[in-house]
Please model this.
Amino acid sequence: MAYRYGQWAFVCDRCGFEFLSGEAKKTWDGFMVDAACWEPRHPSEFFRARREHPIPWQSPEQPELSVSPFEYVDNGYWDGPSVVPPAVLVTDEYTTNG
Model:
């Protein structure tokens, strides 16, 4: 390392080698390093996510319907798809016993 007027020797904080102060660079985290050890700050560290806003209103939840793929009929066979009402609404007219 040759002497240059107005510069002094410094030791790189990353690699530990000695360089002149004219080659020193300061990293984003405060280390003084030479040009070979210097790295820019990663761009994703500047990313800011958008703040989520709640929806202003929503529809009320619809009641659930139980769907049975087949319905039992008098002759002992299963027949076609049908919608079975909730248990509260089941009356004699829905049964096959008569």
The chain has a mean pLDDT of 76. Residues 65-98 form one domain. DSSP finds no helices and eight strands in the chain.
